[in-house]
Write a structure and sequence with these properties.
alpha/beta; 8 strands; 30% helix; repressor; HDAC_I/II
């Protein structure tokens, strides 16, 4: 729990997500009946049969879901009310949940609910997904509308979850070409990734002219994650975040995947520092409560991976051209392919509390899943009630 880390920041308590609020996009009738109970009793074996194998029912799940969704909806409401230009909910970003079922560790799609809230004021919302996995739940929710343009950069290979998000998936009906998928192979590095994003982002900015932006910052794309796929670092993702912030639009940042807790905390901490416009130390202070989690180097930086990059420069160029020229939405000439320089140095100060916020979010998000999808009981779920939305109130 963090409050007033900086003078320019305010912490807001999330409003509870009433059962009636998310019914536009959450559960089918049977799911609503299950989650209408305030407390779900777990069988002695610890397992409750549920429609989705990777989203087991655990005690207190309704309150958990309510808090996650309520935090993202509160963050979106703050943008709608004009109380801030940037809001953050690192515990959000559950982008796999579908209209009729939980999926991919996601019991509710808080992203969709937040976008619905933003649509009460903003006519064109841009959704950007940096998670390693395709944001299939969000894409499916808005595949038929031109009012939400979804962009997902993700790993796409046979057998890799969720198996969707190929280049030719562009939406349907009136929403055709308002879905942009950027399928990548193993080993992509910061330079190619950032160059590709800048190329596509420039096109989207000029062609779509969004009124608001929602960004899912899943940290499982970072080197060190058990998924063992990309060679990215928080500094590379940070360059993409800076591009988004330069648009000066109402923007909601959400968390997402990330199964290496220290690496995820490092990533979200670094992104938070960029949003707040402050420099933080690369050395983790030994006074930090989670100091030992960051061994052996005790540094903020995550080193790039050394996996073979299966995405050649020519592959990335062709992918950019296919996206930028293959859609009628982009009527101007394709942007030039340009290499983006490596990240800038980050400096020193006010590190402890920012890192603590990210680490706390990671621990709460992953608390119900150990290695091998082990189910545990949420006997201390009340801790979730301290989840907060961090707000940046002045212009960046």
């Amino acid at each position: 729990m963090v409050s007033h880390m900086y003078a320019s920041e305010e912490a807001w308590q999330p409003q509870g997500c009433a059962v009636e609020l998310p019914l536009r996009f959450v559960w089918g009738a049977s799911m609503r009946k299950i989650f209408s109970c305030s407390c779900v009793k777990i069988k002695q074996s610890g397992v409750v049969v549920m429609k989705c194998y990777d989203c087991p029912l655990v005690e207190g799940i309704y309150r958990f879901v309510e808090t996650i969704a309520g935090a993202s909806i509160t963050a979106a409401q703050v943008l709608v009310d004009g109380l801030a230009r940037v809001t953050i909910n690192w515990c959000g970003g559950w982008h796999h949940a579908q209209r009729d079922e939980a999926e991919g560790f996601c019991y509710i799609n808080d992203v969709v609910l937040a976008i619905h809230k933003l649509r009460e004021k903003f006519s064109r919302v841009l959704y950007i997904d940096f998670d390693l996995h395709h944001g299939n739940g969000v894409e499916n929710a808005f595949a038929f509308t031109p009012h939400v343009l979804t962009v997902s950069l993700h790993k796409y290979e046979p057998g890799f979850y969720p198996g969707s998000g190929k280049l030719l998936d562009v939406g349907f009906g009136q929403g055709r070409y308002y879905t942009v998928n950027v399928p990548l192979k193993d080993g992509v590095r910061d330079d190619h990734y950032v160059s590709l994003f800048h190329c596509i982002a420039n096109k989207i900015w000029s062609a779509y002219c969004p009124n608001a932006v929602v960004v899912q910052c899943g940290a499982d794309c970072i080197n060190g994650d058990p998924a063992c796929a990309f060679n990215l670092t928080p500094q590379g993702i940070g360059l993409c975040i800076k591009k988004i912030l330069a648009w000066n639009l109402p923007t909601l940042f959400l968390g997402g995947g990330g199964y290496n807790l220290p690496a995820t905390a490092r990533c979200w901490t670094y992104i938070t520092s960029i949003i707040l416009g402050c420099q933080i130390s690369t050395s983790i202070p030994d006074s930090n409560v989670d100091f030992l989690c960051y061994s052996p180097d005790f540094e903020l930086d995550v080193i790039p991976g050394n996996r073979s990059d299966l995405n050649t420069a020519e592959d990335m160029k062709q992918l950019a051209e296919a996206i930028c020229t293959g859609s009628p939405l982009f009527k101007t000439d394709c942007c030039w392919w340009t290499e983006v320089s490596e990240h800038a140095e980050i400096g020193i100060h006010n590190y402890n509390r920012v890192l603590g916020t990210a680490m706390y979010s990671c621990q709460r998000y992953l608390a119900c899943f150990e290695a091998g999808f082990k189910i545990i009981s949420y006997v201390n779920l009340k801790c979730m009630t301290v989840m907060q939305v961090i707000l940046k109130k002045h212009e960046l």
